[in-house]
Design brief:
The structure holds two protein chains of two kinds. By secondary structure, chain A is an alpha+beta fold. Chain A has twelve helices and twelve strands. The longest helix of chain A is centred in the C-terminal third of the chain and has 34 residues. By secondary structure, chain B is an alpha/beta fold. In chain B, α3 crosses α4, α3 packs parallel to α5 and α5 packs parallel to α6. Classes of the chains: A alpha+beta, B alpha/beta.
């Protein structure tokens, strides 16, 4: 009887497409919004996740997230190095000076000052040049989006100069750094150079990056550093989540996305549920005839569930395809780079749409199961 | 001797309660013999449709008993009643109730598919009976492309394809012109009448009464009298 159910489902093309596209657009909207939300939240942690050679971040106890730091004392680096279990520890500076070009364009930039000797935290994904060239005097590496922002209509190249706090810096490389939360260019320089871009502030150490000795986990080392020095120490992953949680708790972003997601769920439920319900109601005479002929309630239930499952799966597949196309297109744009359709989001939306379709099917099923087969004799 | 195809004893059926209670069947005693075409005739609203719904097991009587080929419907578990309907009863509805999304052959195959027959076998049997009913060239068309008479023949084929023992027809000629209605009744008589089978027809179309072996006349929820047009005695 299943082919009968499928034929009934697709007989009225307009209604069938209406049902499928209601589910497809709900799916698209949900996957789109949840993935953009996840992508934006991940951006708040990208500076941490980009540093792959250190596993523990040490900061002042008042520092809650990457973008707002209270400076450490220079002696804190030595205290961290003295903690048992630390394989090595290096300094890291983070600053937000204004970068100016010769043509007069300017923009605030994120400057990361790396340990002069080891260049720990240097960008590993380079589009042009080499991170090793940071050892040259007055050199910086800038990310692609930052270069295009400050040097529009200029092909990617090295050799251009910038002014940072009245100091000249030469671009020696273009990195593919992950997008920050803001649209600020990301620049990497040696610590000693970056300190000069900073201006008059006395304290310059933002973070100490450390790596545990073999056999010690990053979390263990973070706990040891915290208890020994009184500084705040977090594993890279924990600190990344700290940043995400900070933005979740202190900005309106989750509420705004939450409202859109809630509307998508409600619209999806109401539109697809109502369309499927109306579809079933319009076919009640046919279901009554089948019931009179001797088709059992369990078979009718399976038929309705199959119809719901096919409509739901088709809609989900189309919606996910649309979302994939959207992200494939926009993940190549500089402004939206790094925002991708996560499989976790697609899986979550699949589960949600399955619930929506099941709820719609349950409403329709109730009508079918309560159907009086004698109705077929009424004209 | 074969038991009667249908035997009703003191069937009462009412709908609603209190002031809105309507007593539709008021003590029906009725028998339809095997091997015969029995008509239920009477004015609109006299209870014919309710009675065939009760006989087919689609409605429960408020009181009284119905037996089909000697089997009491009330004592049957619900699943057995559905199985009996699927296997032993064929329906021809006034509005045909063909499924527009299916082809003619697929519509006819539905009772066989409901009995879990393989689709290919079911379609073969459906095609064979449609061929007999003169619709062999319309197997793959949707019902909407057929005339009213052709659709009724498809409905008839669906009612007969699984060789049921009882065929119940509700106003099978109501939507048809005289000639087409006559042809449908000829097909019904030729296809369904068999010593251990029976046909029960609800109709108030007296142009087809001559097909009846017995005509039970109903009025206001009771059977007033029974005619036997082709016999010398009347009940």
């Amino acid at each position: 009887m299943y082919f009968v159910a499928l034929r009934m489902l697709s007989a009225d093309k307009a209604k069938y497409l209406g049902l499928v596209f209601a589910i497809a657009f709900s799916t698209f909207l949900l996957e789109n919004q949840t993935s953009i939300f996840a992508g934006i939240m991940k951006r708040t942690a990208n500076r941490i996740l980009d540093v792959t050679d250190a596993e523990v971040w040490v900061m002042d106890p008042a520092t809650q997230y990457f973008d707002e730091t209270k400076a450490l004392k220079d002696t804190d680096l030595l205290r961290v190095r003295a903690v048992p279990g630390v394989a090595w520890a290096v300094r890291l500076l983070k600053d937000l000076p204004v970068a100016r070009t010769a043509s007069g364009r300017f923009n605030q930039a994120i400057v990361i000052g790396l340990d002069d000797a080891t260049l720990t935290g240097a960008p590993r994904r380079m589009l042009l040049g080499s991170w090793d060239r940071l050892r040259e005097p007055n050199s910086i590496i800038i990310d692609e989006a930052g270069f295009r922002l400050l040097f529009p209509s200029t092909p990617l190249r090295t050799g251009d100069t910038l002014e940072l706090n009245d100091r000249r810096a030469t671009i020696v490389g273009i990195s593919d750094a992950a997008a920050p939360f803001t649209n600020f260019p990301i620049m990497h320089a040696r610590y000693s150079e970056a300190r000069e871009f900073r201006g008059r502030e006395r304290s310059q150490l933002s973070f100490v990056l450390a790596r545990p000795q073999p056999g010690i986990s990053p979390n263990d080392l973070a706990n040891r550093i915290s208890s020994t020095t009184g500084l705040r120490a977090r594993s890279s992953l924990d600190f990344a989540w700290d940043c995400i949680r900070y933005y979740m708790a202190n900005t309106g972003i989750p509420v705004n996305f939450g409202i859109t997601i809630a509307i998508a769920i409600i619209v999806g439920l109401v539109v697809s549920g109502q369309t499927f319900y109306l579809f079933t109601v319009e076919n009640l005479r046919q279901f009554a005839a089948l019931k009179a002929i001797g088709v059992t309630n369990p078979t009718l239930a399976r038929m309705v569930l199959l119809q719901a499952a096919v409509a739901g799966f088709s809609g989900f597949a189309i919606g996910t395809g649309m979302a994939a196309l959207f992200f494939e297109t926009f993940s190549r744009q500089l402004a939206t780079r790094g925002i991708i359709l996560l499989w976790q989001n697609a899986a979550g939306v699949a589960a949600l749409m399955a619930l929506v379709v099941l709820a719609a099917a349950a409403l329709s099923l109730r009508k079918v199961l309560q159907l009086e087969p004698a109705a077929v004799f009424r004209s | 001797m074969n038991p009667p195809a249908v035997h009703c004893h003191q069937i009462h059926r009412h709908f609603g309660n209190g002031d809105t209670r309507v007593h539709v069947l008021r003590g029906i005693d009725f028998t339809a013999a095997s091997g015969q075409i029995t008509f239920l005739a009477g004015p609109s609203g006299c209870g014919k449709t309710t009675l065939i719904s009760v006989i087919a097991g689609l409605l429960q009587p408020s009181s009284g008993s119905v037996s089909l080929f000697g089997r009491d419907l009330a004592s049957m578990p619900p699943d057995d009643a559905v199985r009996l309907r699927r296997k032993d009863i064929g329906f021809v509805f006034q509005q045909y109730h063909l499924i527009p999304a299916l082809s003619v052959a697929e519509n006819v195959a539905v009772p066989l598919l409901a009995a879990s027959m393989k689709r290919r076998d079911a379609l073969e049997q459906a095609s064979a009976i449609l061929d007999k009913l003169g619709l062999g060239d319309r197997l793959h068309q949707p019902p909407a492309r057929l005339s009213g008479g052709q659709q009724q023949r498809v409905a008839l084929a669906r009612a007969l394809v699984h060789q049921p023992r009882l065929v119940i027809c509700d106003e099978p000629t109501a939507a048809l012109d005289h000639e087409t209605g006559h042809r449908v009744m000829e097909l019904l008589a030729a296809s369904a009448v068999h010593p251990d089978r029976a046909v029960l027809v609800v109709s108030h179309d007296n142009r087809i009464f001559h097909f009846a072996d017995a005509i039970a006349h109903m009025d206001d929820g009771i059977i007033t009298h029974i005619d036997h047009p082709n016999a010398t005695t009347t009940a």
